[in-house]
Amino acid sequence: MEVATQDFYLTAFLRLNGVVLKDLREDGRRHLFVFEDDKELQNLKRAYYFNQAQVDPLDFKRSIRELKSLIMEG
């Protein structure tokens, strides 16, 4: 099963934590980031939205840059 989100920063966080981006879809001017839905993804989303996640800020910045590059290529 797939799960899609428009949340750019959630996507950067998930990728930083090793979740593989399955697809990138355009939805008008926005992008949909598609992942395989599993327990790990749900746990990471929960940690993200409930402010329980901790990341290295420089790694997060790198993940954001990589994601922006991926969008620009598409």
Give a written overview of the molecule:
Helix 1 packs across helix 3 (57-73). The longest helix has 17 residues, at 57-73. The chain has three helices and three strands; from the N terminus they run βαββαα. A three-stranded antiparallel sheet has the order 1-3-2, covered by helices on one side. It is 50% helix and 24% strand. The protein has one domain. By secondary structure, it is α+β, with helices and mostly antiparallel strands. The model has no long low-confidence stretch (mean pLDDT 96). A hairpin with a 2-residue loop joins strand 2 and strand 3 (30-36).
Protein topology:
Layout: E1 2-5, H1 8-16, E2 21-27, E3 30-36, H2 39-49, H3 57-73
Antiparallel strand pairs: 1-3, 2-3
Helix pairs in contact: 1-3
Instruction: Count every helix, treating DSSP H or I runs of 4 or more residues as helices.
Output: 3
Instruction: Note the beta-strand portion.
Output: 15-25%
Strand order of the largest sheet: 1-3-2
Overall residue-averaged pLDDT value = 96
State the domain count: 1
Question: What is the general shape?
Answer: globular
Structural class per helix/strand content?
alpha+beta
| Radius of gyration based on Cα positions | 12 Å
Span between N and C termini? Answer: 24 Å
Which stretches of 5+ consecutive residues score pLDDT under 50? none
